[in-house]
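Reading is simple: the token line describes the chain's fold. The lines below illustrate.

. . .
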Amino acid sequence: MITVTYFTFGPFQENTYILYDETQECIVVDPGCYGREEKKELVDFIELNKLRVVKLINTHGHIDHMLGNNFVAGKFNVALEMNEHDVKLLLAAPTYGQMWGIAAEPSPEPGNLLSEGDRVKFGNSVLEVLFTPGHSEGSISFYSREDDFVIAGDVLFNGSIGRTDLPGGNFDTLISSIKEKLFPLGDDCKVYSGHGPVTTIGFEKEFNPFL
């Protein structure tokens, strides 16, 4: 069984996820830790729970989801994994940060590229990769069939959807991704988003004004 823990980090209030199971192997998804105290909080949790970081993953390449990439990759000696369509976006993130007065450390380039149908394995657990563009060209989500949850990045939020006015965004593509890739996961499926509280597919079907 996968345990999902998240921290809300950085100037963008982004959700950074740690997923682990009974083997104590874990993956870090979208490290938005910014500054010494947030990095310490992340490491303290990992060390306190005696976890071993085996993967670093980005759902997409926007700046708020990559602020801690360089730190996590170096601290735990893991290579970044993401979708190929967001690599340019990722590498340009520090330049965008300058416009907002945010000193973003450059991210390492990905060591592995993830696509629809790939499987992310750690410990005894498996996540299925779903290609869910629209918020960005290379947005991907991670579905646990066994534990019935999805890490959706900025594709779907509690009561909202990801922005489509940023580089790589497209409203129609985003809505198609939600309805064709996330809705079929079932009403009880938990949705862990890049910002805000946890929701479910069923709740968003009924109450999300964009859907």
Notes: Residues 2 and 125 are 7 Å apart (CA to CA).
